[in-house]
Specification:
There is one protein chain. By secondary structure, this protein is α/β, with parallel strands linked by helices. The chain is built from 13 helices and 10 strands. Strands 5-4-3-6-8-7 form a 6-stranded mixed beta sheet, with helices on both faces. The structure holds Fe4 H S5 and zinc ion (2 copies). Fe4 H S5 binds next to helix 6.
């Protein structure tokens, strides 16, 4: 990742990574230390976790969720994982294998839920049946199943692997639209409320490149390929735009997001809906603003639809038709 003669800022040993936003290069040991420090700073600074928390990590088999799980266990937290089989062809099969291998090698507990086996549908079919972009049905399914598993399993907090790039991209999108309700809720910690578990994002101070490097240095195998359904996703365009700015001006991404959290989010506190209009879904009991929750609507439409493969859904263009 860096020229061989580069030296670590801390110990002057051979550097393995150059981090322009810190204006420094680091050896493997001090890079890992920097990552731990950033995660501890996020956990303590935002009041994310207590030592006696029972943590459930939403695991996808990609670098971020495996890095999050690894970091928490390394820092001494008690954390189990949950993997949801989304039925997105080879991508899901392989990502499930990475998640399972990670847990098995470390003796960690990984719960799994398979959409097709347990709910009679998969994400390509749901996308076709609901006539929406795949990420819409996928997001609703994952949110519901992770929330439910956390509550049913007696976990006190749900951890997701969202990194600084993810959070900055979402913030960029919300800002471009001046979507005040979303901006008001874009926090790295959401308290438990009205049938939702507490949710936290301990990697929110680490970039995508840093979580990938964490996995490489720690010898964690993860699925490198992106989900085939992400192509054309606005989120990716926002990330690319922010990366172009970051290239010119290192540190911009971190200051955009972290200064928002520190300076702007408190001003939006009054805009935060407290969920008073939520009531139990008539089918599953999960909190919802309508009669039937988004998940149950996806299940109902998709389970009645004949299965659609990811190849058929994406067509020859490799993008959602
Ligand atoms: S898995 Fe699902 Fe992502 Fe694929 S369909 Fe979209 S939301 S891109 S994290
Ligand atoms: Zn060093
Ligand atoms: Zn429901």
């Amino acid at each position: 990742m860096v020229a061989s003669h580069s030296k670590c800022r801390v110990c002057k040993g051979p550097a393995v990574i150059d981090l322009p936003r810190h204006n420094a290069k680091f050896c493997a040991h001090h890079f890992l230390e920097l990552c731990r420090r950033q995660v501890v700073k996020a956990i303590d600074g935002f009041g994310m976790l207590r030592r006696d928390d029972r943590i459930l990590v939403a695991v996808s088999g990609g670098k971020d969720s495996l890095a999050a799980w690894d970091l928490l266990v390394e820092l001494g937290y008690q954390a189990d994982g949950l993997y949801v089989g989304l039925g997105i062809g080879d991508y899901s099969d392989v990502s499930g294998q990475y998640a399972t291998a990670f847990a098995a090698e470390r003796g960690l507990t990984l719960h799994t839920v398979d959409l097709r086996q347990e709910y009679g549908y998969d994400i390509p079919t749901a996308a076709r049946a609901t006539r929406r972009v795949p990420c819409s049905a996928c997001g609703a399914s994952k949110r519901h199943l992770f929330d439910r598993a956390a509550l049913d399993g007696g976990y006190t907090v749900l951890v997701t692997g969202h990194n600084l790039d993810d959070e900055a991209a979402v913030l960029f999108g919300n800002t471009l639209r001046w979507d005040v309700p979303y901006l008001a809720r874009q926090l790295p910690v959401l308290a438990a409320r009205h049938g939702f578990p507490k949710k936290v994002k301990p990697l929110c101070r680490l970039t995508e490149r840093e979580t990938a490097a964490w996995c490489v240095v720690r010898g964690i195998d993860y699925l490198v390929e992106e989900c085939p359904m992400a192509a054309g996703n606005r989120h990716l365009a926002y990330k690319a735009a922010l990366n172009a700015i970051e290239e010119q001006s290192p540190g911009t991404k971190a200051s955009f997001y972290l200064n928002f959290i520190e300076r702007m989010a408190p001003l939006l506190a009054g805009e935060r809906a407290e969920g008073d209009d939520l009531h139990p879904c008539q089918r599953c009991g999960a909190p919802t603003t309508g009669e039937i929750c988004a998940f149950c609507r996806v299940v109902e439409k998709s389970a009645a639809h004949e299965p659609v493969s990811v190849e058929v859904l994406l067509g020859r263009k490799g993008r959602v038709a």
